[in-house]
Here is the input.
Amino acid sequence: MLDELRQIVTEVSKSADLRAALDLIARRVQSALDASVCSVYVLSDESAPEAGDHVLVLQATEGLNKAMIGHVSLALEEGLVGQVARRAELINLEDASRHSAFKFVTDIGEEPYHGFMGVPIIHRGEVLGVLVVQARERRRFSEDQESFVVTLATQLASALRHARASGELMRTGNEPGEFDSAFSARGLPGSPGVVFGTAVVVADGYSLELVESREVDDIDHELAVLDSAIEAVRQEFEQLKIDFARASGSEEENLLFDAFIRMLSGGSLVEGIEQHIRAGNCAPAALRDAIAEHAAVFEQMSDAYLRERAQDIRDLGNRILQKLHAESAGPCEWPEQIVLVGADLSASHLAEVPTERLVGIVSSTGSGSSHLAILARALGVPAAMGVSDLPMTRLRNKEVVVDGYRGLVVVRPRGSLREEFMRLAREEAELTEELAALRDEPALTSDGVRVAMHVNIGLLSDMAPSLTVGAEGIGLYRTEVPFQIRKQFPGEDEQAHIYREALETFAGKPVVLRTLDVGGDKPLSYFPIREDNPFLGWRGIRLVLDHPEIFLTQLRAMLKAAAGLNNLHILLPMISAVDELDQSLAYIAQAVDEVSDEIGDLQAPKVGAMIEVPSAVYQADALASRCDFLSIGTNDLTQYLLAIDRNNERVASRYDALHPAVLTAIRDVCAAGARHDCQVAVCGELAGDPMGAVLLLGMGINSLSMSAGSLPRIKWVIRCFSYTEARELLERAMQCERPREIRALLTQALEDRGLGGLIRAGRY
Ligand code: PEP
Ligand code: MG
Here is the structure.
């Protein structure tokens, strides 16, 4: 049964559209369970105005009256099917007609059936529909059959969600007027703002499972496209072989490259793909099918090693797919207003786009605290993150609207919806203009408390926007970013040159250079780290303490860069134990001695520890007593306190820096700082969040560092509150047990002061 299951899921993912997918499910499940009927009911989605109006619509059946497809709809309160969806629970009955919830539906042809099993189709907590199997006789489906359908339903859920999204998008591709509702998908807020733009799709995350079938007429063209994609991949492997030989790569890797090169130089794989093309399929779908056939051969082998090679074949297929995709994209002409769309987008993808045209970012992965979202906020560009339901390849060159407040992406909006988004985008632009006028004003509360407004930067190019928004210093320079965009560790002079530019630009103002914070989700291509649990692994300070040569080079570069300027602050990331801080301080002292010997007397820099793991919160007194300042990294602190991966969109709705536990931790760190006369700053994204900034102000934090795009917004917030009001709000927030209660409290406080435009689309 397992094979059958796998086969059905594969076939569903190949279906041309939602209708075909549902028909296939009904047909295959009916036959696999030897049932009389299999039907799929799909919950009508956002098109229903209120959640209460949701209905289950019969969308496919094998065994019942097909003429009723699309015409039978059941309210959630109705019948056994409604009960399965409402309770999100399986029902398996020998005789459905005897159950109290049974409802007879006319014209559907259900009269003769008794045995009934209904299984909810659930995707990430959302019921999408119900899969129903029925038997003519009185029969309870077996436990094995229950497991089969439950497993199938879990696997179908995401395919169904994706197919539904693709289907809707295809409809919007029709002539205007034929369908007046736009396709939209919801992810997570990434960076605030509302913009219109043209989708430019980066295909790195495009994989064979996402390929859709498409019939083609020009077979020769498809064959030619395939040929050049294969040749490009073959050359890549030839080059990789040479590179690996130079780096004395393993024998196994070499053999693998040879095997791939052979496969790409003709033979059954290439012939298989060509055959599928000659049968009329497009090159990507032909590739998908041929790879699936080849992988299946390996999967059936008894030898475990050979079985694992199936994955290598799929990886090879995905590599060819990327090339095919690049071929079909043709030469790139950048649209005027670019919305960059992709999976696993990174700083290097952004670097390829003309920055002045980049107006929005949509990522199918990640969350608001991923580094990509942080980058978007630095650029002041709206971003939607974790929008996993987007059929990305179909978005290319389409007009999209990004609402970064809600993480919403709307494709080709029409009519009144379009006008509404136009209004919101206009108001957003006005707001940005108004905020620009605050550039030279201080962040001063109405009762005279002054907050220092610093920026977080990663590249020297971030400095221009920092100056435009009137930053009063750099509160966090993520020095790993210049390391990440290079091909090898930058040397002492190269680093000193980079740091000098930041220190000089902000001469007379504090510049906080954080030491290398790689590991976790910040890899260095030339220093690969393979770990099962990278976020709990060799990260930040742990790595550089194990590599003093890297650490000392960086410290010396920082000290040399600061000569004569005396505005250097060194910040140590991921400190989780006092020993780590002591060792770091010793290395800093050593570097100060060395550099003093070289260039003469040197003023010792101020040194701070980041508070971003729970142990540092509990040892804040010990850390504060050894440091000049503490800087709270709320992004990681939230991740580690709540045990929620900051980049995982599946759990992103649970990741909340306004969680009472996080706020309590920050308040305790502030108290420890005060006890030791050690300044406490916040450089995590909470500082750039209007709600967070009010609470941090209430805690007495008077140094905030954030993305340049957030700075004017937070300045406005601080100028609209008094310190006393912020303290009162904090007191009330600390009484709450749930993040959502805290959000409600602060939403009201911001709306009351006319600041609602900072937390939602639209000015008023
Ligand atoms: C943080 O964790 O809050 C922080 C500022 O560091 P990063 O986001 O670079 O991990
Ligand atoms: Mg961090």
